[in-house]
Design goal:
The protein is an alpha+beta fold and 540 residues long. Helices cover 34% and strands 17% of the residues. The chain is built from 7 helices and 23 strands. Helix 5 packs antiparallel against helix 7.
């Protein structure tokens, strides 16, 4: 197709059919020129042979011959067009500042003229004596940005003191005492810094890619947890539905069987009564008939042969008792409750197993322990020594309450630990925030920074204002504590019974949380046993 720039003299070498530069041009008898292929195809599609330009008709199809002169000129024109296209500026190249219309790419830039020139417009700088003295460099874009605004000279140096590009005049005036290097030297130093920056950027990219992967893994785990929760729920509810359907079937069957038995008894009695009525009705007819006889002899003879009355039951002792359904529904519900308890036990066990997966290894921090407390060497056990020890002052130490925290704290995610409370008559366990008051006898509540269980002779409570009293089914041996920091959840479990004890929900955490223990007072040996941070032993 024709170039978009075809105009003026370019049209002389263009075929009026394809609008492109002539290819094997031929002349018609009327003197017009076309590409041989174009005019041949045009006449192949016509009934009459005529010129596409002047519409002159030809009686016969003209014999076409190549126009040699025009063909040669078209070839030269095509070559010049290709050369011109090659010289045209492309994206990223420096354009000639003199060219009008189609801009050609610059081959040199003049630091005196502040202009860039193509090969054609560079010619005066190569010919004129005055222009030959101008400094020519490789093509540069935006020459004005490369010149010193104060001295109109090329910025070829770098002031390390003020971190700016300068010219040669600048270093003997405003930057006389400054550290000056060439642009290349400064670039080499900056390039070395770029390597460090690139390494840091790559590390940041890797960290973020790792974060993305962690988020994806979290979503994947969340989906797996959701699928498992749905599957467990469907399994439990399906079992309950089957149990309910069975209970309903058993109840219907039992009630219907009892009703059927009662109806059968009633039908048998009615049948017997109807038979007695039939017999008695027959005797009544005989008696009535005999009572109307006037023949004395016949009466006496018939009376002697009168049948004895038919045997009848003593109906005063016979009754049809409606069936009793008392306890039938209760027994069905008892069966349902038993099934529900079995499924709930499975769910509790599964729930405890899930939270146990977040077990953390924590040890008690002696710097926080009240002076009465005695900690084991491994930091896993604590009990009241019944007397205060001389210990160095420490800002983290509890001075009034016999409390202790762990070395480890948690500011996100989930964590779980277990505390053995066996043989203890009083104790605390749970978590506390970092900013709790350690020098006063503060009320232990979520408002003051504690989420704890407390046990004594009066029973088990979750410490709050007021306390939440909790039901104990059996003596506690080991308590599990689970925290979901981001969800604001603190849950407590009876590990041996695999039972959930209590959950504090909707908590607001904004600082680190520490596992918290208190063995309470020694009480003359009755409460001398240690609280023990135990390793998790997941049951199959």
């Amino acid at each position: 197709m024709a170039s978009a720039n075809t105009s003026g003299s370019d049209e002389i070498f263009s075929c009026s059919i394809c609008l492109d530069v002539f290819n094997s041009p031929v002349s018609t008898p009327c003197g017009h020129n076309f590409c041989r292929t174009c005019i041949t195809k045009f006449w192949d599609e016509q009934v009459k042979y005529k010129c596409p330009l002047c519409n002159m008709l030809f009686n016969t199809r003209p014999d076409l011959r190549i126009n040699s002169l025009l063909s040669e000129m078209a070839a030269q024109f095509r070559t010049s067009v290709r050369v011109k296209e090659q010289l045209c500026v492309k994206p990223g190249e420096v354009p000639c500042d003199v060219c009008t219309g189609t801009q050609l790419k610059a081959v040199k830039s003049c630091l005196v003229c502040f202009m860039s020139f193509c090969q054609t417009h560079l010619e005066p700088h190569q010919r004129v004596t005055v222009l030959k003295k101008h400094r020519l460099v490789e093509p540069m874009d935006r020459l004005e940005d490369r010149m010193c605004n104060k001295h109109d000279r090329l910025l070829e140096l770098f002031c390390q003191t003020e971190q700016v590009c300068v010219c040669h005049f600048c270093i003997v005036t405003d930057h006389r005492s400054h550290s000056i290097v060439t642009l290349k030297e400064e670039q080499n130093m900056k390039t070395a810094q770029l390597g460090k920056i690139e390494a840091e950027v790559q590390q940041m990219i890797q960290e973020r890619q790792k974060n993305i992967q962690e988020i994806k893994d979290t979503v994947k785990r969340s989906k797996a947890d959701a699928d498992r929760e749905i599957a467990d729920g469907v399994q439990v509810l399906a079992a309950l539905m089957r149990c309910i359907e069975k209970c309903q079937d058993d109840l219907n069957k039992m009630v219907k069987e009892r009703l059927k038995s009662t109806k059968k008894q009633a039908e048998d009695l009615i049948k017997e009564l109807e038979q007695e009525i039939e017999d008695l009705t027959s005797r009544s007819s005989e008696v009535k008939q005999l009572s109307h006889t006037k023949d004395h002899l016949h009466f006496l003879q018939a009376f002697r042969s009168l049948k004895d009355p038919p045997p009848t039951r003593d109906w005063t002792t016979v009754e049809v008792r409606p069936p009793s359904y008392v306890g039938t529904l209760r027994r069905s519900l008892d069966q349902l409750e038993e099934t529900l308890n079995m499924e709930m036990k499975k769910l509790r066990d599964a729930e405890l197993k899930r939270v146990q997966q977040y077990e953390v290894d924590v040890t008690l921090d002696p710097d926080t322990a009240h002076p009465c407390l005695i900690l084991s060497e491994d930091g896993k056990q604590v009990h009241d020594g019944d007397e205060e020890k001389e210990l160095p002052d420490h800002p983290k130490r509890f001075t009034k309450c016999i409390f202790v925290l762990t070395r480890q704290s948690f500011s996100s995610g989930r964590f779980y630990f277990e505390v053995q409370v066996k043989d203890k008559t009083a104790w605390y366990t749970g978590v506390a925030r970092e900013s709790i008051d350690r020098n006063g006898e503060t009320l232990v509540t979520p408002e003051t920074g504690y989420w704890t269980l407390y046990y004594d002779e009066d029973g088990l409570v979750f410490n709050d204002d007021p306390d939440v009293r909790l039901l104990l089914r059996a003596e506690l041996q080991k308590v599990g504590v689970f925290v979901d920091y981001d969800e604001g959840l603190v849950s407590f479990y009876d590990v041996d019974a695999r039972v959930h004890i209590y959950s504090a929900t909707g908590c607001s955490f904004s600082e680190p949380l520490y596992p918290f223990l208190s063995p309470c007072l020694h009480e003359e040996g009755t409460n001398s046993a240690s609280l023990i941070i135990s390793p998790v032993n997941q049951k199959d």
